[in-house]
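G.,

No rush on this.
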Amino acid sequence: MWSSPLQARDVPKYEPIDPEELKSRLGTTPLEHDSTERHSGMVYFCREENWGAPCFVYYPELDYACSELGPELKSHVGSVFVEPGVICRMATLNGQSRCAPTKIFAWPETQSGWSDLFQQQVPGGEGQLGYETTHFTCTKCTNCVRDAE
């Protein structure tokens, strides 16, 4: 289910975002901060750790499609953050040119994002997550809730 053929892997729509604007969104929901500019399904990537520029907001298909990262980020992702209501996986291509997921990220577990992807090992594999990530997959999350506390 998390693996899709190569022809399904287009770069989704994405645009630059100021790292300071991105940092202001960490740990908040759209209802709590800037509801007019944010919505479920937005995924943020920065090239450098600790939200270092350049940063981009992606608008992927939410149907498990394997989405390719743009050339600014491919194999060099330092930070990641996702809006509530979406569950995603960082991925790379395997030997059969299929999307091979490496690590899951979803709200609320990563509600403050991950800012250290060059320090994280690929689960069950070799290498750092930030250098191995070339693609990602996302879908709507039906059970992603924020702690009431």
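When you get to it, here's the other one too:
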Amino acid sequence: MEKDIQDKSRTQIKKEAEKLQKLGEQLIKLPIRQLERMELPDDLRDALIEARSIKSKIAGRRQRQFIGTLMRDVDPEPIRHALLQTDSDLPIESEIVKKTRRWLDRLLTDDPAVMEEFICACPGLDRQRLRQLMRNAKNEKITGKSSKSLKKLEQLIMKSMSDK
């Protein structure tokens, strides 16, 4: 390894490190579920998940550099291969999002038949929680408050759709 490093110029080493950092940035953008499916070291996975929650621009840059440093110890080819596979899975994810939005719009129409249809489509769903979130989301829409319940309802629908 040391001989390999000695053969490379400093510029070449920096370019490779930059490529690994960009690969890490692509991993940051992936959903957490897909990150968990990939075979990554625990410290790298934790750093990727933490990077998603960082709001500060400078701290985010430092975290991306840290991820690039961790990526140097990992073989990038399996990660690139897994990224190519997840790119082919993205249409499935977007289809789930589209279905979730359609159900969300339908559930907020005050039609009890739609709720029954959704409960039949997703067995094991907590009816009381669904009704409560629907009621709160409608009230938030009317009063113009923040849409916490709407987001929670959307998450519940998405979880139910992905569990099917």
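The CA atoms of residues 51 and 61 lie 9 Å apart. The mean pLDDT is 84.

Enjoy the weekend,
O.
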